[in-house]
Structure formats: structure tokens, C-alpha cells
Amino acid sequence: MRISLDKFDPVNLKQRLISASMVAPVVLLAIFLGGPVYYAMIIAATIIGALEWINIVAPKTSIFIRGCTAGSIFISIFVGAAISPMSGLIIGLLFSPALLFLASREDMERAGWVALALPYLAGGGLALLSSRAIPEIGMAMTIYLVVVVWAADVGGFMAGNMIGGSKLMPSVSPNKTWAGFGGGVVLAAVFGCVIAVSFGAKEPISAFITAVLIAVVAQVGDLFESYVKRRNDVKDSGNIMPGHGGILDRIDGLLFASIFFAVFRLGQ
């Protein structure tokens, strides 16, 4: 195995570091504060992500359908915050067939992809609400989840660039490698264990194993968005974050991971 720094793009790396240094403190502060600040962040991120999703899968979609999508996500997450995440999920599930019907009147072939914005974005947002709503440990659990996903992304980026090697799924994402996948899992597991111990976890091994699972799911989420973008000949979901692309490019793994984490907790 040969490790090299020659493959790094210093401009891209600088942009990534600048964007991350601006966004990470805001996200962590919102998680710490919880309440309306956290809800507003989730609503903003999921609505922007949903509009970016539509730009990828059905760029000719009308403003009316885009508005219906954004409105449905807003209502679902607002209900989830005001009443309970499960209530918001029920609202989202009720809105989904209506959105599918409306979108099919414009473009039958792409209607399903448009309607997928609701379970994908609203589902992930509601899962993040449910993590933060856990009595007493919600803040710690949400920070753990988010940091593990970030670590998986950073570890994947670093190992993929420094080691390279065999491609993970070249037909889906030509830049992702097995080395990057492994590096993401390792760094996520380490950071997950550290975060858990720092919050007083009594079973660090469990936190370590959970972090591994979250990292794998997060990278599957990243591959899913890569597949959708490649299918539609799109490089980035947007350009709102220099070096990172759009909001959806940054939260794709977190959306999958948060849903997995919510279901995983139910099984415990």
C-alpha cells in the first residue's frame, strides 16, 4: 500500500476546510441549543435539499410542484417538532401520494423521483428531530451521530486521495475507492468512541460498533446520491458551499444515517 499526497487538490481542500469551519460550529451550536433554533436548521436544510433534489431528477418541474414539495416538507417537520416526529412522519406519508399525483400530471416518467423527496428529505429530517428529542441524552446522541457521519466523510476523502486503489463502485461514483470506504469507517469508529466516552458512555465498545454501522450506512447514502446524479448527468446538487457542492451533497449520508439510527434505537 502506497500513501501519497500528490493526488490532493489544494484548492479544493482549502475550499472544503473554509466551508467546514464555517458550517460545523453553526450546526453544533444548533444541536446544543435545541428547540426552535434546531428545528429551523432542519427545516431549512431539508427544504433546500429537496429543491436541489428536484433540480437533479426533474429540472423542468414547475414552480407549483416545487412549492408543494417545499410546503409538504415544512408542514411535516413543523408537525414533527410541535407534536412528535411520528406525527410528522404520518403527515409526510399522507402527502406523498398527493405529490406523486400532482407531479405525474406534468411528467409521469419523473414523478416518482420528485415524490421521493418527501420520504428522503422529510424522513431524514424527522429522524434527526427524534434523535434530539431523546430525554436527557438527545443532545449527546445527535452530536455523536453527526460527528460520526462527518468523520466518515473526512476519513473517506483523506484515505481515498492518499491511498487510492481499487474503485468501490466505478459505475456509480468513479472517484470512490475501497480505501476511502475503509478510511471513512475507521475514522468514524474512532471519533464515535471518543465522543461517546466524552459524554460519559458506559459501553464504549457498543458506541464503537454503532459508529461502524452508521459510517457504512452514511457511505451508502452518499453512493445513492452519486447514482442519482450520475443517472441525470449532474456533478453537484448545487454550489451553495464552495468545495462541497450543494446542501444535499453534504447531508446525503446524514439523511440515510439518521433514519438508520432512529430505527436502530427502536430495536434496542
Which terms summarize this structure?
single chain; two-stranded antiparallel ribbon; disordered N terminus; 268 residues; 2 strands; mainly alpha
Give the SSE map.
Elements: H1 10-33, H2 35-57, H3 63-82, H4 85-104, H5 108-115, H6 117-132, H7 138-162, E1 167-169, E2 173-177, H8 178-198, H9 204-231, H10 247-266
Antiparallel strand pairs: 1-2
Helix pairs in contact: 1-2, 2-3, 2-6, 2-10, 3-4, 3-6, 4-5, 4-6, 6-7, 6-10, 7-8, 7-9, 7-10, 8-9, 9-10
Q: If you average the pLDDT, what whole number results?
A: 90
Order of SSEs: HHHHHHHEEHHH
Shape: globular
Quantity of strands, as a count: 2
Strand arrangement in the largest pleated sheet: 1-2
The fraction of residues in strands falls at under 5%
C-alpha-based Rg, rounded: 18 Å
Question: What report would you give on this structure?
Answer:
- The chain has 268 residues and is mainly alpha-helical.
- The protein has one domain (15-266).
- It has ten helices and two strands; from the N terminus they run αααααααββααα.
- Strands 1-2 form a two-stranded antiparallel sheet.
- β1 and β2 (173-177) form a beta hairpin.
- α3 (63-82) packs antiparallel against α4 and α3 (63-82) packs parallel to α6 (117-132).
- The N and C termini lie far apart (39 Å).
- Residues 1-6 have low confidence and may be disordered.
